[in-house]
Specification:
Length: 100
């Protein structure tokens, strides 16, 4: 779990995506409440950049686990499907199953 979290290559499991979303939500909440009013906007943007990159990377890898190309991540409501759908158990074009 969490092999190369910032990479867009490979596949990731549902649990890893859910944990990532919870952690990223918590970080965003803390930064938004505690630090954003006191920091200049570009500092908040610099903090948000790695958080956004990690979310995009985990989402793209989850699309790969479902056998879909990266752009499915931007289809409305597909993110919700990624949180509940089981990944492909077999090897697909994006690599080995993360459960193996």
């Amino acid at each position: 779990m969490y092999r190369k979290p910032f990479s867009f290559q490979g596949r990731t499991r549902r649990l890893e995506l859910v944990i990532s979303v919870v952690i990223l939500f918590a970080i965003s909440l803390v930064v938004g409440i505690a630090f954003a009013p006191k920091l200049p906007p570009y500092h908040v943007g610099l903090i948000a950049l790695p958080v956004t990159w990690l979310f995009l990377a985990q989402g793209v890898k989850r699309c790969h686990d479902l056998g879909k190309p990266w752009w499915w991540f931007f289809v409305p409501f597909f993110v919700l499907w990624m949180l509940i759908a089981a990944g492909e158990q077999r090897v697909n074009q994006f690599g080995l199953s993360p459960k193996s």
